[in-house]
Design goal:
This protein is mainly β. It has 2 helices and 27 strands. A hairpin with a 5-residue loop joins strand 5 and strand 6 (about 55-60). The chain is globular, with a radius of gyration of 20 Å. The termini are far apart.
């Protein structure tokens, strides 16, 4: 399993496996559609899929440097764009892609026509081609990250829509893969996939400084923000998924179950579920996050009355 994404209505989950994409009906736990030739096996999860905000199209990042826009209903190809990593902007009208060119920060595309409508100049930013790209919640700003281990320099660049030059550049000695932007557009989540660092950080993009730094016990392979921006989910190479408080950086939950590395994870649109894709076990798991739902599910599935000690241990009663 390389990547996954929820449909905007939260009822379907798209998962890539090898050169296929499977669309699952979450409630029925059945595959409803299959997309062929959309991905390839990459242990770092570079190839990805993205559902459009209105649920009508799907972006597919291909290893050949071409991004496909598919009709979500027919799965037919609508547009093909140059790029390696892509994302939709929330305005539902704009698509961003990275390119294999250290002089470019990325390309801006019209979703409707599939034509390029803008270019992000990377000559003042990059020493290598960008490896992640994001759009702000208001669709007015774009973020890219680039850098290399050989140089030891990594940069995050902020662009304004309609301008090709960055308005701000942040330099650091740790890798910065983009994991999300808070709903107010003020804070950015980055994670470091280099095994010796294992860092997840929250940046104040205006002040250009780190406001929260979290050291993860094992290599971070992916990280993402909850839709409300309050939680961080991290996926690691040691079979663990962890949920962190974005404000304090404290650990909230550890979610077991996978065998082997976990490459991808995604919150449901309402933030009440977390889906994870395991690379080692080839399993997709969906976790219930609200404690009230977990307790209700536990009560439904229990086959006997719990002892007073068990009720205290598992349900927190009489403490």
């Amino acid at each position: 399993m390389q990547s996954l994404t929820y449909a905007p209505d939260g009822k379907k989950l798209l998962v890539t496996i090898g050169d296929q994409g499977l669309i699952w009906d979450i409630k029925q736990i059945t595959v409803t559609k299959t997309i062929t030739d959309v991905s390839y096996t990459d242990v770092f999860g570079v190839v990805g899929v993205h559902w459009s905000p209105d649920g009508q199209t799907i972006l597919v990042d291909n290893a050949d440097g071409m991004v496909k826009v598919l009709d979500a209903n027919t799965l037919g190809v609508i547009h093909t764009m140059s790029g390696f990593v892509s994302t939709y902007c929330p305005d539902n009208a704009t698509i961003l892609t990275t390119v294999d060119d250290d002089k470019l920060g990325g390309r801006v595309w019209s979703r409707e026509t599939g034509k390029q409508i803008g270019l992000l100049d990377g000559r003042k930013v990059n020493n290598r081609s960008p490896y992640s790209i994001f759009c702000s919640p208001d669709s007015r700003h774009f973020l890219t990250t680039s850098g290399s281990l050989s140089s030891g320099v990594f940069r995050m660049a902020l662009y304004e829509q309609g301008k090709d030059q960055p308005v701000a550049v942040i330099s650091d000695t740790q890798q910065m893969s983009l994991g999300g932007i808070t709903p107010d557009g003020k804070n950015v989540l980055t994670y470091d996939m280099v095994e010796r660092n294992n860092a997840v950080r929250i940046w104040d993009i205006v002040a250009q400084r780190i406001v929260v730094s979290i050291n993860i016990p094992s290599q971070v392979l992916n990280a993402t923000l909850s839709p409300d921006g309050k939680l961080i989910a991290t996926a690691s190479g040691n079979e663990s998924v962890r949920i962190w408080d974005r404000i304090t950086g404290t650990l909230r939950l550890t979610l077991p179950g996978h065998i082997g590395p976990i490459l991808s994870l995604a919150f449901s649109p309402d933030g009440r579920r977390l889906a994870t894709a395991g690379f080692g076990d080839g399993v997709v798991r969906q976790y219930i996050l609200p404690i009230d739902e977990l307790l209700a599910l536990a009560h439904q599935r229990v086959t006997r009355q719990l002892s007073p000690v068990e009720r205290t241990q598992f349900l927190g009663e009489n403490r």
